[in-house]
Structure formats: C-alpha cells, structure tokens
Design goal:
The chain has 69 residues and is mainly α. The protein is 51% helix and 0% strand.
Length: 69
Amino acid sequence: MVKVVKYVEDFDDDDWENIAKIIPTKDAKKCVKRWLFIQKKGGNKSKWQDGEDEVLKEQVAIYGAKDWT
C-alpha cells in the first residue's frame, strides 16, 4: 500500500488502464468503479492535517495493512 502512494499525483482521473497496472488484483473497470463509489460517498480529498500520516503509519504498524476504507 505504501508503495502505491507515490503514484497518486502521477495519474489523471481518466488514466484507469495505467492505474490498474500498479494494482495487481484490479483491472481498469474495477478501479474506476471503486473511485466512483468513493466519490458518491463523499470521500475526503483534502490534504491531511499535520500528524495524520504519522497516526496512520502507527496504526498500520500495530494492526497491519488492512482495508482502511
């Protein structure tokens, strides 16, 4: 999961084929479907506040890389 973070700013919202290439278990259709689901649910796309990255890293260290949605 952490490796994927570096790609976030490298792709446009319509670049699903290339996005799917870095997510081995998903194809482009599944990626766009998930993105649309997140948008419909009002996913927060704002920048993280100071310290939120560290809190998430600590939680991943404790509980492992789970589905954090």
